[in-house]
Design brief:
Layout: H1 2-7, H2 28-34, E1 45-46, E2 49-50, H3 61-67, H4 72-85, H5 87-101, H6 124-144, H7 154-166, H8 171-210, H9 219-254, H10 260-276, H11 278-281, H12 284-293, H13 299-313, H14 319-335, H15 342-358, H16 365-372, H17 380-395, H18 400-407, H19 415-429, H20 436-443, H21 448-451, H22 454-462, H23 474-493, H24 509-536, H25 541-547, H26 557-561, H27 565-581, H28 585-598, H29 606-634, H30 640-659, H31 667-681, H32 686-708, H33 714-733, H34 735-757, H35 766-780, H36 790-804, H37 822-826, H38 835-846, H39 851-855, H40 862-872, H41 890-897, H42 903-916, H43 944-956, H44 960-965, H45 974-987, H46 997-1009, H47 1024-1033, H48 1061-1066
Antiparallel strand pairs: 1-2
Helix pairs in contact: 4-5, 4-6, 5-7, 6-8, 7-8, 7-9, 8-9, 8-10, 10-12, 10-13, 12-14, 13-15, 14-15, 15-17, 17-20, 19-23, 20-23, 22-24, 23-24, 23-25, 24-27, 25-28, 28-30, 29-30, 29-31, 30-32, 31-32, 33-34, 34-35, 34-36, 36-38, 38-40, 38-45, 41-47, 42-46
Length: about 1100
């Protein structure tokens, strides 16, 4: 604080001694010490800290200004009243106000560069505080301008305080005090301006009274006027001293502060001073600070400079005072039109436009050309500002008499006639760009009257030039047509061209009305003019292609409501002539598109246009058929005329086939003949081959359109049968790959829906319901034989679970994975799982879940809840064998026929089971990093009766088990793996891992040497008798395709373990689809 006090400086009037009638001034610190005894705990203050009354109302200036509930003038009036009662306490309140506005509460240690203080805090409350803060200072000076500011106490103290704070190294003090000082200066400038006006008035009154004759002169009035003039001069001098103190003590140092916001405040306010009191401030001594700051490295500061200058150049009376500044800094201002900050570039262009408006001689041709090319900028505000400059420079008429005389003329002789010619010349001379749509859009806001004068444009194109008038060249006519079409598009669509702006915005009611009026106006005009324009320029492909863009912007109802069918016939006639004359793709496509627009079913003219279109196609199809016959008959002897006839006619038909369904003319047949002849004989010209291929392509596409429209037809029925047969054959070839294909197709549909609607899907929407319905239909394809489709259904669930938890939510684990909603689709397949498999799949699902996920019940977690419920229902008995069931089932009857297994066989099975897990890695891997186990068994401990059956089969087929163990092609079933993992977790603690180790070691070593994954019997593998009974039971459906048993001599390859990432990577038998 001592350093801050040193920064305060005593202000006095240079060159003038203190008044003898006034008491010597004291510094605020001296006055505080001498009058400290008179200060009491008044106005709710205790030990210098603000207090509140019993009702909690704000009592300090900072709180009142912050809340902004009271009118600022009443707040200032209350302070003035307290100042009159005790100016020390009132001034202390004002000092505390500035300190608190800096964010200081008196007990904090701040970082120097901390940006956390009221002026920089975000939110509407603090934005309002800044406005109230500035208003308070202005109102304070305005209310004190007649007495208090001249008491040599308040202003001295405030200016000294702000000067000291502005030199602080703490950013908050420096920023707040600088803003306060600049607003204080602005208020003092206004006071000085009023004093100057009063001085001038008093001086005139004094001169008038003094010039009166001696007899009529009022000496007392002269004395009063003289005294008043002297008092005003003293006040003026006092105010000037205050302003000098603020300018030299604060502005000169802070306009180049390290903080951009502080520099911007200084530049903004000096602009206000120069505009408000130009006689005192609009000179080079002050303008130089703005000119220097045009080079500021921060765009925010450069922007304030430009806006400050704009307020000056707007007043043409100030141009003489700005002449030297303009000459000195003009180049810098022009170069700022290319500023990297778009906002700065826009304001720079507007400033250059103001300079041009004030004095055309101020800018050279080179300066203007630097701005001209910006009309082609992709940034629309820059382009529009450049368009305003171009309009001022080229299209503004400055001769009122000539303008009045030309206003009575219309068409090519109207005032816009020459301006349109100038626009065409400017467009052609633009060497950097050739985008007419961008040029029109840039000029649209400033030159609409010119750009909408379509009558003048068409007359310039249709009428012959009058005597003495230079005719337009072919290049100029092409440019004018292109510009005219762009103006039509802009008027009809009422939005910028592609590449300008962020998209279509909603039009206001006024803009919508203007759009409708413009569209009606251009339709009424060009319905008549367009056939004449096509007739004149029918031989010019470029002009015709542009002119044929116009009908798409018509209000086609006007043809009927305005009874203008004859003009429609004229248009159709001209289009037919154009098609017959041209073979250029652009022209033919434009004609085809025009027919397509005019044939729209919503308009009454559709029948008339369709008849003309059909007649045209009939003529060309007949010509094409004859020319093809001639060409094929001539063969290798065909001449150029035969080739040209086929090629030209085929080009026309191909262009029309692109936008029109011509399948009823059967163009495909002759195109196919041409292609087949080319293949067989190799003598068909390449251009004919290309056109024939393209025409055939369009024919096929139109056939597909008919199929996909969903109308009942033989195509739909045939297509449905093809899909059904394909699914059936795929399922017979490989049920697991078929299931993976089905779930993959559902995943792709789900991904497309997420891309369209975002991750927060509406589960009740038609799109989601459609995917669920498709899943339900897919589930029906598995039929009623759950045993046969067991592996396939389980694999489908596995892939679906992995897909649902493939990605984590970026917001954290408390939020559902993005694909969690897919579980609701997957629920449609839960009914196809066996009861014991439901629990296995449920266990696999739980590997992906955290405790938090299991406890969530919000709506976004409903797919998980629904899917878990579908698995839990009916899945409690996981130990039940596939072949077990009710006592009346066939499987049970088969087991009853078999004998009870010997005890020693059960012991061998147990040893095999325990030994097989001996070398297995006992860590349980997460689903994301599944690895192939070293040795795995899927043999579950069943009742002795079932084991006995296996022993009998084993004894009847010696060597089968060894072949099974050492066959590297056979892989474990994933269901068996999951069940064995559950069983192993339950029995692990009771196993004797050393039991039977010697007997199993050789098998393990053999498997590891072969580098193949060891395979053991799945719970699905049962005896031959059981398989035969199953075949008898399901023979009315489809052939049973169970995983092969080790008891069968001719075994096929087992299904891969799709829960094993290694197996997934090595699997090459599928369709090459990515695994999730």
């Amino acid at each position: 604080e001592e350093a801050e006090v040193k920064g305060k400086r005593k202000r006095g009037r240079p060159g003038r001694p203190p008044s003898a009638t006034k008491k010597p001034r004291k510094s605020p610190a001296d006055k505080g010490r001498s009058e400290s005894g008179a200060r009491g705990a008044s106005r709710g203050r205790a030990n210098g800290h603000p207090q509140q009354n019993g009702e909690g109302d704000p009592v300090t200036l900072f709180e009142v200004v912050k809340l902004g509930k009271s009118a600022m003038q009443s707040v200032v009036d209350d302070w003035i009243e307290s100042y009159k009662q005790d100016r020390d306490i009132a001034l202390l309140d004002l000092i505390n106000f500035f300190i608190q506005c800096s964010g200081c509460r008196g007990t904090e240690r701040w970082k120097r560069d901390s940006g956390d203080y009221p002026l920089t805090m975000p939110g509407p409350q603090w934005k309002k505080f800044r406005s109230n803060f500035c208003e308070f200072i202005g109102v304070l000076i305005r209310q004190c301008q007649y007495s208090i500011i001249y008491d040599e106490y308040m202003m001295d103290t405030v200016i000294s305080l702000l000067t000291g704070l502005s030199d602080s190294q703490v950013r908050a003090f420096r920023h707040t005090s600088t803003l306060a000082a600049m607003k204080l200066m602005t208020a003092l400038v206004n006071v000085a301006l009023n004093l100057s006006i009063h001085q001038d008035n008093t001086q005139r009154q004094y001169e008038a009274e003094r010039n009166k004759m001696i007899g009529k002169r009022a000496n007392e009035r002269l004395e009063l006027l003289l005294q008043k003039r002297k008092e005003l001069q003293e006040n003026q001098d006092e105010i000037e001293n205050m302003m000098n103190s603020i300018f030299k003590g604060i502005f000169v140092h802070r306009y180049r502060d390290a903080i951009a916001e502080i520099r911007a405040v200084c530049i903004e306010e000096i602009g206000v001073w120069m505009k408000m009191y130009s006689d005192a401030f609009l000179n080079d001594s002050y303008l130089k600070y703005v000119g220097w700051t045009l080079h500021d490295r921060q765009g925010e500061v450069r922007l304030k400079c430009l806006k400050a200058l704009q307020s000056l150049y707007t007043n043409r009376e100030l141009f003489p005072k700005l002449e030297l500044f303009t000459n000195r800094f003009k180049d810098r201002i022009v170069s700022m039109t290319l500023d990297k900050e778009y906002d700065v570039a826009v304001e720079a262009i507007r400033l250059v436009t103001l300079i041009l408006h004030g004095s055309e001689e101020a800018l050279s041709n080179e300066d203007c050309e630097n701005v001209y090319h910006l009309v082609y900028s992709a940034h629309r505000p820059v382009a529009v500002a450049a368009g305003e400059f171009l309009h001022k420079k080229l299209f503004s008429r400055h001769d009122p008499q000539a303008e009045e005389a030309l206003a009575k003329r219309r068409g090519r002789n109207s005032p816009n006639g020459n301006l349109i010619r100038m626009l065409v010349l400017f467009f052609l001379e633009s060497e950097l760009h050739e985008h007419a749509a961008y040029l029109v859009d840039s000029l649209w806001e400033s030159s609409q009257e010119l750009l909408k004068d379509w009558e003048c444009m068409t007359e310039l194109l249709l009428e012959e030039p009058v005597q003495g008038e230079e005719a337009m060249s072919d290049r100029q006519e092409s440019a004018l047509i292109e510009l005219m079409v762009c103006t039509i598009r802009q008027a009809a669509e009422a939005h910028p061209p592609v590449g300008r702006g962020t998209g279509k915005r909603v039009l206001t009611a006024k803009e919508r009305k203007t759009q409708i009026d413009d569209r009606n106006k251009l339709t009424e005009h060009f319905i008549i003019a367009l056939p004449m324009l096509l007739s004149k320029y029918s031989a010019d492909a470029e002009k015709v292609a542009n002119l044929l863009q116009i009908p798409q912007y018509f209000d086609l109802e006007i043809y009927s409501t305005g009874r203008m069918e004859k003009h429609l016939d004229a248009l159709l006639k001209q289009i037919k002539f154009v098609v017959e004359k041209h073979v250029e793709s652009d022209v033919l496509e434009a004609c085809s598109k025009t027919y397509s627009i005019l044939c729209s079913e919503e308009y009454t003219i559709q029948n008339r246009v369709d008849i003309a279109h059909s007649q045209l196609i009939d003529e060309f199809v007949d010509r094409f058929n004859h020319s093809v016959e001639d060409l094929l008959q001539e063969g290798e002897e065909a001449d150029d005329d035969d080739i040209y006839n086929v090629l030209s006619t085929l080009k026309r038909l191909t262009s029309f086939h692109n936008a029109h369904d011509l399948t009823k003319w059967d163009l495909f047949s002759n195109c196919y003949r041409l292609l087949r002849t080319g293949i067989e004989h190799g003598a068909m010209p390449e251009q004919i081959v290309v056109q024939a291929l393209q025409c055939s392509h369009y024919s096929i596409l139109w056939q597909l359109v008919k199929i996909t429209e969903g109308s009942p037809s033989k195509y739909y029925n045939d297509y449905g049968d093809i899909i059904k047969e394909t699914l059936s054959k795929t399922r017979q070839i490989d049920k697991i790959q078929c299931a993976k294909t089905l779930i993959l197709s559902l995943q792709q549909l789900f991904n497309e829906l997420v891309q369209e609607q975002g991750p927060n899907l509406d589960r009740t929407s038609a799109h989601v319901s459609g995917i669920k319905e498709l899943a339900r239909r897919f589930a029906l394809t598995f039929g009623l034989d759950q045993i046969k489709t067991r592996e396939a259904v389980a694999t489908l669930h596995k892939d679906g679970i992995e897909f649902a938890f493939k990605y984590q939510n970026q917001k954290g684990q408390d939020y559902p994975p993005p694909n969690l909603a897919f579980l609701e689709v997957l629920s449609e397949f839960s009914s196809k799982l066996l009861r014991q498999d439901k629990k296995t799949v449920h266990s696999y699902l739980e590997k992906f879940l955290t405790e938090q996920m299991m406890e969530r019940r919000e709506d976004v977690w409903l797919p998980l809840i629904s899917y878990r419920n579908s698995l839990v229902t009916g899945g409690e008995d996981d130990r039940m064998s596939v072949n077990s069931g009710s006592s009346s089932s066939k499987a049970s009857s088969v087991r009853n026929k078999k004998g009870r297994p010997p005890l020693h066989k059960k012991r061998v099975e147990d040893e095999s089971l325990e030994g097989s897990w001996l070398n297995r890695n006992e860590s349980i891997h997460t689903p994301g990093t599944l690895q192939a186990p070293q040795l795995t068994s899927t043999v579950l401990r069943e009742n002795t009766r079932q084991i006995g059956e296996q022993i009998q089969e084993h004894e009847s087929e010696q060597g089968s088990e060894q072949d099974f163990l050492h066959n590297p092609q056979m892989q474990i079933s994933w269901l068996g793996q999951q069940k064995l993992e559950d069983l192993n977790r339950k029995d692990r603690t009771g196993m004797n891992y050393m039991k039977g180790r010697t007997g199993v070691r050789h098998a393990v070593r053999g498997l590891m040497e072969d580098d193949a994954e060891p395979i053991f019997e799945d719970v699905m593998m049962s005896s031959r008798g059981q398989l035969e009974d199953m075949n008898e039971e399901f023979e009315d459906t489809m052939v049973i395709d169970l995983p092969p048993s080790r008891n069968r001599r001719e075994r096929a390859e087992l299904r891969p373990d799709f829960f094993d990432s290694a197996a997934i990577i090595e699997d090459d038998s599928g369709f090459g689809m990515p695994m999730f």
